[in-house]
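Q: Could you predict the 3D structure of 16S rRNA m(2)G 1207 methyltransferase?
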Amino acid sequence: MDLISSELNQCLRQASGKTLWLVDENIQLSLSARQDIDVIGNRFDVIERLEASGWQAQFSDFDLSECPNGEYDQVLYRVSKEKPVVHYLISGASRLLKPGGTLTLLGEKGEGIRTYVRKAATCLGSERQEQKLGGDSWRADIVRAKQTGECPPDQDYTELRPACEDTRQQYFSKPGLFGWNKIDRGSAFLIEQLPEMLGQSLPLTGSVLDLGCGFGYLALNACGAESTLVCTDNNAAALKACRYNLDQAGLNAQVLASDAGDQVSGTFQTLLCNPPFHSGFAVDGDLTDRFLKAAQRLLDRNGTACFVVNQHIPLERKAQGLFRDIQLHADNGQFKLVRLRHPLTP
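A: Sure. Here are the predicted structure tokens for 16S rRNA m(2)G 1207 methyltransferase:
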């Protein structure tokens, strides 16, 4: 367990009074659930695991709207990867904490923790107490004063906004979603090659699963009114953006929260996937394996799964034993497209 995770566990053990834990992607626990600690997080897999362990956990895009002002004695937060998320939650903590309540921030120097702590101290109107845990890991405790100050700008975190566009359409997205303000080059490569990969023109007909949908780029460009579409993602911000974009395009689809497709049932004629390979702040090689196993389970025996991955990910090797037909379709030097058919019985 790393230093920050150890410190977070210690904070959770010692928490007293009414406590809110804002949890993002990084979580390693060594303690039993505490019913007196509220948990809000934006990653479905994290919340799913916490609920299974007995925690009072809520999955949302960090929706704090139902939390009354001045409700909490303590807010715990291991800072997220994206600045607008951190700024939004610092501002939220200022509103939710009682005067005299404490915001505890944890993070690495390279993640901007020292800057975030200074901004939080200004926002909460109080001095900060910082502790170096070792290496570049830090903890800070900031007490909310009666008179608070200016909070950091969060780019209207909660709101969807036009984020990027191409010749086909404009896409709405928001901070909190990985690559939220750009079209992923791997996904664009997949859409460009998809008719050739499948041997059919777009839009697709029949049942289609967008596994790890993000804001919906693959589904929006591959599907039409004749598609029976399901989109799924682990990130609450992604689900919100995808739902909005599909509605704007007039596409009827289910949008489901799931951890690498674990909540999806049935089988699909076409499966599209640009799997993530980062979990929290680190590369996670197991993620690709989980997406491949989900594809094996969810692909119709006569269907086709089309994956795009970074060139260094050995998808073809990982797919061995899961699919009978594994074909490298294209490689542009940065991304490669792999077509999978005939899933083997798990």
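Q: Anything worth pointing out?
A: The domain at 161-343 is CATH 3.40.50.150 (Rossmann fold).
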